[in-house]
Amino acid sequence: MSNRTPEQERNEQVVRQLYYFAEASSKDTAKFMSLFAEGGSFYDISAGKKYYGADIGRTVDIYASAFPDMHRELGNFYFYDNAVIVELSLNGTHNGELALPIGTIPPTGKNIHAPCCDVFRLTDGKVTSFDCYLVASVLLEQLGVLGNLGAVLKH
């Protein structure tokens, strides 16, 4: 028996839908964006970039393009008031260009299994903020570019 409130149950389902629409195999950027409230935001903490409006969908497109087999392995879900916190990993093969705010990493053909923690805040079943705490150093190390990032980036 769950000790979560009906709102927390609904919020979990919204977050699970959001992940589903961000997967490479089921990518639907428009449906992903439809789960955000007007004025909602996505904050890529590791990249230091916050996205609003139509730009939120760019994040789905960027990762699906860079990792055509991108999938997320969802771990634990935690709930606090209107927040949903998810432990997960980003998994895939780097077969496309990874466009980051600091530059673009050409395809390496390497696999990633990068740990991440996402924090969602929801109101009335819509995401008002999504803060992504991807462990970028692990991702870059798995791509084989951590020690040589400056030489690898295309500007």
TrEMBL record:
Keywords: Isomerase. The keyword Isomerase applies. The keyword Nuclease does not apply. Gene3D superfamilies: 3.10.450.50. Signal peptide: none annotated. GO terms for molecular function: isomerase activity. It comes from the Bacteria. InterPro entries: NTF2-like_dom_sf, SnoaL-like. This is Ketosteroid isomerase-related protein. It comes from Paraburkholderia phenazinium.
